[in-house]
Each structure stands twice: as structure tokens, then as C-alpha cells.
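Consider the following assembly input.
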Amino acid sequence: MNRREFLECAALLVSGTVIQAPAFALNEEQQQYLATADDYASRPANLLNEAQRRIVAAVAEAIIPRTDTPGAIDAGVPDFIELMVADWFNEQERAIFMAGLEDLSARIPAEFGKPYDELDSAGQVAVLERMEAAAEDSPWYQPGNVRRAFISDAPFICQLKELTIWGFFTSETGMKQVLRYNPMPMKFNGEYARAPGDTTWAPFSFYR
Amino acid sequence: MKTEHKYDFDAIVVGSGITGGWAAKELTEKGLKVLVLERGKDLQHGSGYLGEHAPGYKQPFHGKPDRALEERDYPVQRKVYAFSTANRHFWNNDRENPYATEEGKPFDWFRSGVVGGRSLLWGRQTYRFSPEDFKANATDGHGIPWPVGYDDVAPWYSRVEKFIGVNGRKEGLAQLPDGEFQKPMPWFAIEKTIQQRLRKSAPDITLTNARTAILTEDLPGRAACHYCGPCENGCSTGSYFSSQSSTLPAARATGKMTLKPDSVVERLQYDEGTGRISAIHVIDAQTNARRAYRARVYFLCASTVGSTQLLLNSSSAAFPNGLANRSGVLGRYLMDHFLGVGAVGMFSEHSDSYFYGNRPTGLYVPRFRNVGKQDDDTDFIRGYGFQTMINSSNWMGQLNAKGFGGALKSQLSAIPPTWTFYMGGFGECLPRKRNHLYLSKSKKDRFGIPQVAFDFEWSDNERAMGKDIQQEGLRILEAAGAAFTMPIGDAQTLSVPGAGIHEMGTARMGDDPGESVLNRYNQAHDVPNLFVTDGSFMTSASCVNPSLTYMAFTARACDYAVQQIGEGVI
């Protein structure tokens, strides 16, 4: 435990929403019982070409890989990312994303002689680590800066991480096979024993 | 009771929320034929809770806000903690139903837009006012004296608590009277440790269960809480109290209630000949069709702001400044609890303990400042309480962690070793004439009704109390053995007025008709068949959450109204 961890926890409890610029694609009001709706990420996405999709999938898997539990690709995160970039991002955010993807598409083959998704996993992570080091001054990395609106000018690497982490831990696979899922606990026990390796409960409400 | 042919109904209730539901239940159970008018859309208990139990992957954008839609339609409502994709359809559409504020004087008006009103969305905190609360104005000279005391209201508190179901723990405190409680919800291990330490190191502090209108024992038609967590998405098992789960079904069961959604009340018509309200004028929100209804008695339960707006918009030759406003105080003495200040501490104990189930409430620190007498070391009058919350973080708290791969995945999935204990102050606001709402002279809504406008500022008393809240919060956390502590908020700015969602006053009750709108039974001094029982009757604010008091006064006013009908007075 340190000051930074404390700030992270404390920030979760202090509400505050930053006004965002309007985006596009207005949805009409929900008329559907959501718990029985189709999964969001099952909707068709048609923003990216196949080469771009391979890169996005490889990046997502490098961020959250399959280990003894499923990883980002198992959880459908690449589809989630493409949908979010297409339907949820505003123009500024989408421009940052597409420019970042263009950069990866061109720079990696020039440097390594093959596309990002064909690098070995250590090589993939090394590329991302360099991007993270270059972006570390972004407010996105500020300790505790998590309960906030999406940061519209956040660098590409931050977009990738936020969408991957969010998409993974809110996916059915992430909620049920990596975290613990229990929508109907039926009781409350505040002194429930914790065993080594236990993961957190999958939450049912989300920071905005 | 046989409805006289000159009336459409015996009673008309405006609003279907926390007090409208109570008026509907009490009046129908006493045999009256009742019309409930709700300006919001229809919503069915259970099947209308479209987001209940919806996991992230079923929600559009996996629960991230639909920013464009919210910017357009919910620029105010989206600011409140309870607003989410899963319950967006419960809230007022700010584009369709706007209000006005003055430059540099923000006011957040959080409203519902459906049958059930804010009883679907409230924080469910349920506390009695104390005898001292009812005496506060008379003691320190702010506002006017309450025309009733604790003993007048206590039986009605009991009646309401038993029906709605309140879980809590009896503490025997004069400043927070005990009520009729179901068994309290269990505690986190760290909460027990904090309590034990405070008993030794801060014996002036009581840490008790937040008294909450959530069932821990079944009631007829309602099941004990299943601990899913986000009550505000609606609860089809009726485990938390709402008018939808409790009072409206009781009224419906009598066969004597007619509930009309999409019914925007434009004005009340006053008849100088009889000195009574003779009709209520209603606009259909879907078709804009207008019609009037007549009844023997009218209950305004449209929320503080809604009811006062309606009275202000019901002027006549007899009442040129707003209906029942001979005193001139209608719209004045607006209050809200301030929040946004407190303290937070981190604890490293109990790192082997976790939780099972999501307890949808916290603990409470009852008022301990200026209790029974003015403390020597306070520079403010009245007091505050703390609502507390335990947080054990999860992946959302580390969304911006550095790193990649298996290590990052493990870190984001793991249970953090520490517990965070948050103490949020809820401070009493003084009744001040300058804080008011009024009808905009230039802005109208889509029905041609003048928009309501706000002019509200906190005073030095609230700011001084806010500073004390931070200092005392830190003292309590240190006494509890926190490893780190930090004050929360800014005691100079406090919360945005209205953000406490406890707006009250503006049609206050009192014994002097020259200084108040309502008498001690929530009846307009000058209009015997008009009762106002939402938060607008409040003469002072206390520091405790007010909904229980609104409900108790509503039940009491219904009893009195039916008695007056029986005696031929109304």
C-alpha cells in the first residue's frame, strides 16, 4: 500500500463528471429488456479492413493475453474495440485511433520486416511498452484518474488500453471466467474468507 | 363514500412518487375515490425495469455512457451518481422539460420522468427528525417555529416505517430517534474494527447501520433483498421501498384509484364564491389535449419544486402572487442539504477478508455536534451527519495501470489488499428568505407553462459547517486507525445547490398565516380543500434525509382531511 494506491481507491469514491463534446449517432431510448438483449459486441462492425483487424486483435491480446484463463480475443474484445471506435468515439478520438493504427501498420513492417501481428509476443509487448513510455505524461496515467469521462485527446496507446480493459472485464467471458460473477447473491457477508488467487466480483454498475 | 355528482373524484393527488403514493394509499383505504395525476410516462413495476440485472456486455457500449444522447437529453440528470444506461428511462428529459437558472448561480434539479417518480431512484436512507430538530427554528430564531413537535409525528413515523420496511439498529440516541426496524444488514469486518476503535478513541461518535428502506425480511408482495447491488435500476422483487413496489399497489387493491400518466397539471382553479379549489386543469403530454377534473379535496405531492411551481402558476384575482400565497413566502426559504465534503481513509487490516453480496447501503454517523446545546468550539449552528461507504477496489480503479500481459491481467483481476472508508457529510441548511424559486418571466416550457427558475446560495453557516465536517471526518478516521486519510471536497463551494436532491421549503407550514402557506396539517391556511405534503411544507431541514418525514406528514394530512370531510368542513 502506498500513496498512489490510496489515491486510486479514493478517486473511485468521489464522483465527478466532465462535460464531453457532442459526438454523433444518437441512439433512441431503450425499449428492450437489456438482460435478454443480444450482446453488444455481437453487432456487426465494418470500420476496419482485415489487416487492421489483425493488428487490433494482436494488440488487445498483448494487453490481456490468454493465460490459464481466457484472454482478450477469447472474450471478443477486438469486435468491441471496432464497434466503440466506429459508434462511440467522437471525431477527434477516432482520428487519433485511425492515425495510430496507420502508424503501426506502416512503422512495424519498416522496422521489423513483418506486420505487428506477426511479431512474437515479447516483440509485440515491447512495441506497446515504448508507446506507453512515450505517452506517460498524458493525464490518462495520472494516479487515480479513472472515475472520469473518456479523455478525448488521450494518445492511441491509452485508447487501446482503456477499450481493451473495459471491453474485457465487462465481457461475458471476462466477467464469468476471469472475475467472479454472481448476479443473485441472496445474502450479504462482509467477512467472507479470501483465498490466494481469488479475483474480484464482476461489478454491475460502472463508473461513468 | 359516495362521490357527489358535481365531482369526478373525491380526491385528486398530483404526483405518483414517494408522497403521492402515500396519499393515494391512505385516501383510497379510507374509502375515497382518488385520481392520481402523473406528468411522467407510464412505467410498470417489474417489467418497466429494463436495465435490472443487465451485465455490462448486454448494455450498449458495455455501460459507458451514450455521450451524444446524454448531452442532448440529460445534461443535468446525467450528473447524479444514480444515473446510468440501465435506468436512463426513469429520468426527466432535460431537453423536453427544461428549467432556468441565473448566471453564476447554478442549481441542479434532478427529477424523474415516470410513474413512481424519484421513489424509484432515491438513496433509501430513512431517518426520523428528532425533538430537537422540530425545535431548532424556535431555539435559534432562523425561519419560523414548527407548528408541530416530535410527539405529533412519532405515531405516523411508526405507521410509515412498518409499511415501507426499514432495516436498522436501535441506538437510543435523542438526536436520532429509533424507529420500527427490520433486522439490520451485516457489516464488513473493517467496519466492525473501526467501530471498536472509535468506542475507545472517539466515544462521542456512534457508528450505526444506515437506516435504509430495503427489506431484510419479507413483507406481503415484497421479498427480502437479494443483494444484487444497484437498487436504482429498479427492483422487481420490491425489496426497496418505492411507490411502485408498495403504496400504489395498495391503493390499486382498493379498486378506488385511477392513475393517469402523461398528465401535466397546468393550474388549479380557485373559486372565490366557495373559497375552495373548484377544478384542476391538465394537459395530456402526448396529445396536448386539455381537460379539467373536479374533486372535493386536492393533494399536491408533485415534489417541492413541482408543487410550488403549480401554486405560483395558479394565480387569480384573489391570489395575485400565487395560490394560497397571502403570506408572500411561497417559493421562499428553499433549502437543500449540502454534501460534497467529507473525508476518506485507507485501512490495511483485514486483507484476508472479502465480501459476498453487494450491500446496497452503508453505515451512518448520527449528528454529534451542537447536540442539546451549542458546542464551545463550533462557529456554526445546527449540525450534520456522515453517511459512510466501504470500497474494495476492482479493475475499474486501475483502469490506467501501466504494463501489459499476464502481469497486468492478474493485477486487474486481483482483490486489492486494502479497504477504503468514505465519510460523506450531510449538513443542515438554514431556511433563508433569499433562497427561492420563481416563475421565469421569459422562458416557457413546451406546454406554455412558465419555467421554474432558481436563485440559491449557501451561507457562511453552511461553509463553516463544511469545514468542520472535513476536520471531524479526519479526526474520526485517525481515531479509527486509518493508514492514510484525505479530506474530500471544498468547504467554500460545497455541493452544487440542488445536488443533495433534498430540495424543500417554499410552501412552509406554520401557525401564523401571515408567515406561512400551510397549517400544521399541511392544509393551505386560506384554501381548506388544498393540501401540500411533499417537501415544500418543510419549515426547517434537519441534517437527516427527509423522505420519511414527508411520508409521515402525508399520512397524517390524509387522516386529517378525511376527518374534515366527515365533519362537513371540506
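Chain B has ten helices and 19 strands. Ask yourself how this observation constrains the way the partners meet.
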